[in-house]
Write a structure and sequence with these properties.
- This protein is α/β, with parallel strands linked by helices.
- The chain has a single domain, classed as Rossmann fold (3-Layer(aba) Sandwich).
- The chain has six helices and five strands, in the order E-H-E-H-E-H-E-H-E-H-H.
- The protein has a five-stranded parallel sheet with strand order 3-2-1-4-5, with helices on both faces.
- Helix 1 crosses helix 2.
- Bound molecules: adenosine-5'-diphosphate.
- Adenosine-5'-diphosphate (ADP) binds next to helix 1 and strand 4.
């Protein structure tokens, strides 16, 4: 059974994340979405809210691909989280060159911690590649329409939180 872990903050989950999840789900039997607590980043949504949004949005992908998709909140080391969920592969999305430097270091250090866990990088469809949760929040806060970046349900939650 092939198990992969896709970690992130998902504050909130975007169409970019969902594209990566759909691609990863076609490659493994079980995909665990690791939702990082990430207190340092001061998330807009609570862990429970982020988990609920990821669960709701990934349910159709699970039905479509036949891959079991689980959501797992975590606060520990990524490599330990991979062990906890039985994953031998970590999935990351690559957007622009800007992501590369950080991801390059992460792979190197995670490999030093446990060389048996492999990291694979996937690229979203071109129109989803520029999407970043941080910018989606900023656009929404300033009154822009985020319909091209998130699902309708996530858009409703963003507007409720940011515009009151
Ligand atoms: P981070 O806070 O580290 O950026 P995120 O929670 O935003 O993490 O994203 C988790 C993972 O999803 C990361 O590997 C990130 O590169 C990837 N990702 C986010 N948005 C996109 C996108 N639009 N296209 C492809 N990958 C993405």
């Amino acid at each position: 059974m092939r198990v992969a872990l896709y970690p992130g903050t998902f504050d909130p989950v975007t169409l970019g994340h969902l594209d990566i999840i759909g691609r990863a789900a076609q490659m493994v039997d079980r995909l665990v979405i690791g939702v990082a607590i990430n207190r340092d980043k001061k998330p807009l949504f609570t862990l429970e809210e982020r988990v609920a949004m990821v669960m709701a949005e990934t349910a159709p992908l699970s039905a479509k691909t036949g891959c079991e998709i689980l959501v797992h909140p975590f606060e520990n080391l990524l490599i330990d989280c991979a062990h906890d969920v039985g994953a031998t592969t970590i999935v990351r999305g690559l957007r622009a060159v800007a992501d590369f430097e950080y991801e390059f270091q992460m792979v190197g250090m995670n490999r030093a911690l446990d060389s048996s866990v492999e990291t694979v990088f996937l690229m979203a469809e071109a129109r989803y590649q520029p999407i970043a949760s941080k910018l989606v929040k900023e656009i929404c806060r300033l009154g822009g329409d985020v319909a091209k970046f998130v699902t309708p349900a996530v858009k409703v939650q963003l507007e409720a939180r940011l515009r009151g």
